Every structure is written in C-alpha cells, then in structure tokens.
C-alpha cells in the first residue's frame, strides 16, 4: 500500500537546515552528497536511489523549493531539476516554475493537495521533502504514514526544526535503525 513518507537528513540536535536555511552542513558531511564521498561505505544516498524508485509524487514547501532553485540555479539550468515525478510546492506566494518540470503550486488545506498527489502517484509513495512545518500539517490531518531520518554527526544549535510538533512514543513505531556510513538511518511508522 502506498505511503506518505517524510524522508530527510537531520542533525543530531534536530535541525534540517541552518539558521540561513542552508544545507551546507549536510553537503560537507562525508556521504552527504556524491561529492562528499565517505570511504566507500554505504551512505543515505545509496538508500535514496532505492527509495526514489517507489515514489510517485513529491511535495515541498516554498522555502525548500526556493533553496533548491537558488542552489542548483534551476532557472538557468532546468535540466538539474532532479525529480521526474509530479511535484507540488505549497506556497502562498507566486514563485517561478522550473522550465519543463511537472510542478503544481498550491496553497490551503493539505488534505486537498494530498488527494491530488495520491491520484498522480498512481499507487506509489508520496515523498514529503520538507520543511518540517509542512510535514507537521500532514501529520495534523492524519496523512503522514512514515518518518525516515538520516541522522548526521552534526550539531547546529539552531535552525529549521526537523518536525515542530509534539509527537510522543505512543504514536510512533520504530521499524528500522541502522548505521549508514557516518549517518544513522531511523524509520518510524506513524500510528493513526
């Protein structure tokens, strides 16, 4: 059965981006990008390739989208858009679309967006890229099925939180825990 999955990297102290919304902390961690190779050990990137085979639609917030636009210079180099799946960007502002990408800009209740993504995903999973507050909106509506985090050996002290919601252990079931190079991969099923 298809799931709605939050799959992201996070620091040990629970941040997905630094106070400037940058992911440079991740990219400088061995195994955090193809360029930051870890001595041949398995990394979260290896697992991501397999994960992406099961993804039929993706969703992100405007801050995440704008960061990707800027970091990859996508308006000048649209071929660097890494998602062949239909993508939804939740925003209350007008944002430029990546030429040739299947992007839908939406606002309002995430339940309606989730229904459209489920249809477009054609039986495959929905990947919630982030940010954390957007994922929290899906959680609040009972639409989040799984949380997968790649825990990096980094402490930022401040930044964008992983998931700014109070979710206690009775709502989560650990389904996977394993080392992955310098990272630890943890996966939890969300109990509805």
Automatic annotation (TrEMBL):
GO BP terms: riboflavin biosynthetic process
Q: What superkingdom heads the lineage?
A: Bacteria
Q: What is this protein called?
A: Dihydrofolate reductase
Domain spans labelled Bacterial bifunctional deaminase-reductase C-terminal: 5-166
A Gene Ontology molecular function term for this protein is:
5-amino-6-(5-phosphoribosylamino)uracil reductase activity
């Amino acid at each position: 059965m298809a799931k709605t999955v939050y799959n992201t990297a996070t620091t040990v102290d629970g941040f997905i981006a630094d106070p400037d919304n940058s992911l440079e902390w991740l990219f400088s961690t061995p195994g955090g990008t193809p360029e930051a190779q870890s001595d041949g050990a398995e990394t979260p990137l290896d697992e991501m390739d397999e994960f992406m085979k099961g993804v039929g639609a993706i969703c992100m917030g405007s801050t995440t989208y704008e960061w990707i636009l800027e970091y990859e210079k996508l308006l000048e180099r649209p071929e660097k858009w890494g998602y062949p799946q239909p993508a939804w960007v939740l925003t209350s502002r007008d944002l430029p679309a990546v030429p040739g990408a299947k992007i839908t800009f939406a606002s309002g209740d995430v339940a309606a967006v989730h229904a459209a993504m489920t249809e477009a995903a054609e039986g495959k999973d929905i990947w919630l890229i982030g940010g954390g507050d957007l994922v929290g909106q899906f959680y609040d509506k009972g639409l989040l099925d799984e949380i997968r985090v790649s825990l990096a050996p980094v402490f930022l002290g401040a930044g964008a939180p992983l998931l700014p919601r109070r979710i206690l252990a009775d709502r989560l079931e650990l389904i996977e825990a394993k080392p992955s190079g310098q990272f630890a991969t943890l996966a939890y099923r969300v109990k509805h």
